[in-house]
Each structure stands twice: as structure tokens, then as C-alpha cells.
């Protein structure tokens, strides 16, 4: 009887260890499909509207327009800007793994305009030392990532042409200093 109890206990502990290992290895073994789709379907430093079949778009409200821009902070910081106002927009920064690192919307920006710089700590110091006038109203976001992407969303219940203008005028560009 003791032998059966011992074998059962060892089997149970072994099964628990195997299950925990499998759960912890899933993020490293499975490919990151969202990131792969973004970098395959769009050039870096350019907003591209996501099509309706994109898994990222499927998780959002259908009344929102969604665009993405991927970037590489190893090269240069990123400046995201639009001079066009829209009733509502939100922006989220994600790393390669799809973890949301930072979010903001029109209420957090100056005059409701989108003007954001994403940079590493050393890049932020260099930008502030050069003191570029075009960045004087920008919100500076410090991120310790190498590569990432931005999702820009705007609410559009009436298919308003100003929303199309907002996305057309929004830039995602590398800052050369």
C-alpha cells in the first residue's frame, strides 16, 4: 500500500512540474504572430491602417479606425505627430511581445493634438541637449525597448472624412539629431 501511495505522489508531483514548465515556456516557443504580421505588412516608421481580418483589429470595436507603425529604437527615437484634430484618438505603445507599455489619448495631449516622442534614456538626453524647436510641445516617453509598435485608434461612428484626414496626416518618423 505504501508503495502505491509513493508512486502516486511522485507521479502527481512530476505532472505538476511538467505542466508548470509547459506554461512557462509557451511565450518562448510560440511565434509572436501579431509582431510578425506588422513587420511583414508595413515598412517601418509609417502608419498603415489595419485591415478588417487582422487579429488586432478583430479585438477592437468595429467603429474604430486602427493604424499601426513599428519602429526600432536601436537606430533612432520615434516622433509621432499629427496637426489634424479629431473628436477622439488613443495611442498605445507595445513591445515586440505585445505587452502594452504606455497609453494616452487626446485628453492627455496639448490642445488635443498628437505629438509624442518615444526614446531610450540616452536618446532623450541627446534630444534635450540639441533642443529642437519642432519638439517643444512634444510629450517625451522613455522606453527601454529595442523594437516596438504603436497602435493608433480613432472613433468613427459616422465614417467622418476628418478621421481619414487625421490618419493621412499622422506621421511616424525617425528623429535624426
Brief overview, please?
This protein is an alpha+beta fold and 177 residues long. Helices cover 34% and strands 28% of the residues.
Show the helix and strand layout.
Layout: H1 2-29, H2 33-41, E1 48-49, H3 55-58, E2 64-72, E3 78-81, E4 89-95, E5 100-105, E6 115-119, H4 121-130, E7 139-142, E8 147-155, H5 161-169, E9 171-174
Parallel strand pairs: 6-7
Antiparallel strand pairs: 1-2, 2-8, 3-6, 3-9, 4-5, 4-8
Describe this structure as you would to a colleague.
With 177 residues, the chain is of the alpha+beta class. It has 2 domains: 1-30; 33-174, Domain of unknown function DUF1254 (Immunoglobulin-like, Sandwich), CATH 2.60.40.1610. It contains 5 helices and 9 strands. The protein has a 5-stranded antiparallel sheet, with helices on one face. Strands 7-6-3-9 form a 4-stranded mixed sheet. Strand 6, helix 4 (121-130) and strand 7 (139-142) form a beta-alpha-beta unit. The longest helix is centred in the N-terminal third of the chain and has 28 residues, at 2-29. The mean pLDDT is 85. Keywords: Membrane, Transmembrane, Transmembrane helix. This is DUF1254 domain-containing protein.
Amino acid at each position: 500500500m505504501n508503495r502505491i501511495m509513493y508512486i502516486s505522489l511522485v507521479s502527481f508531483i512530476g505532472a505538476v512540474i511538467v505542466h508548470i514548465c509547459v506554461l512557462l515556456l509557451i511565450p518562448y516557443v510560440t511565434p509572436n504572430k501579431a509582431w510578425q504580421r506588422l513587420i511583414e505588412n508595413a515598412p517601418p516608421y509609417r502608419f498603415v491602417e489595419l485591415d478588417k481580418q487582422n487579429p488586432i483589429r478583430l479585438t477592437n470595436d468595429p467603429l474604430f479606425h486602427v493604424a499601426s507603425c513599428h519602429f526600432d529604437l536601436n537606430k533612432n527615437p520615434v516622433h509621432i505627430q499629427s496637426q489634424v484634430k479629431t473628436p477622439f484618438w488613443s495611442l498605445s505603445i507595445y513591445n515586440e511581445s505585445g505587452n502594452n507599455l504606455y497609453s494616452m489619448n487626446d485628453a492627455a495631449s496639448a490642445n488635443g493634438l498628437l505629438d509624442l516622442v518615444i526614446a531610450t534614456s540616452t536618446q532623450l538626453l541627446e534630444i534635450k541637449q540639441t533642443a529642437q524647436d519642432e519638439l517643444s510641445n512634444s510629450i517625451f516617453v522613455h522606453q527601454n525597448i529595442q523594437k516596438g509598435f504603436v497602435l493608433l485608434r480613432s472613433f468613427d461612428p459616422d465614417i467622418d472624412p476628418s478621421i481619414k484626414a487625421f490618419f493621412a496626416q499622422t506621421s511616424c518618423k525617425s528623429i535624426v539629431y
